[in-house]
TrEMBL record:
Name of this protein: General stress protein
Source organism (scientific name): Paenibacillus barcinonensis
Organism placement in taxonomy: Bacteria, Bacillati, Bacillota, Bacilli, Bacillales
Top-level division of the source organism's lineage: Bacteria
A matching Pfam family: KGG
Sequence segments annotated as region (Disordered): 1-83
Amino acid sequence: MTRGHTPDRKMSREEAGRLGGRATSRSHDRSFYQMIGKKGGEATSDAHDAEFYKEIGRKGGEATSENHNTEFYREIGRKGGSS
């Protein structure tokens, strides 16, 4: 719940960020977010090499395997095999 700030209480960063995000979403459409996402992806790609992507893929795979059982992998295998 956003309480805002008063003379005796400052707004938290979380509250300020939420308010700013809501204001931005009211003034921009989907294409704006697609454009900034593309720019961010290109900047990340320019800043990192293949080893960076291998490492984050490895970490993601480890996190997934820690959080899911064999039934999860069977199900995604079935979905992948049927498409």
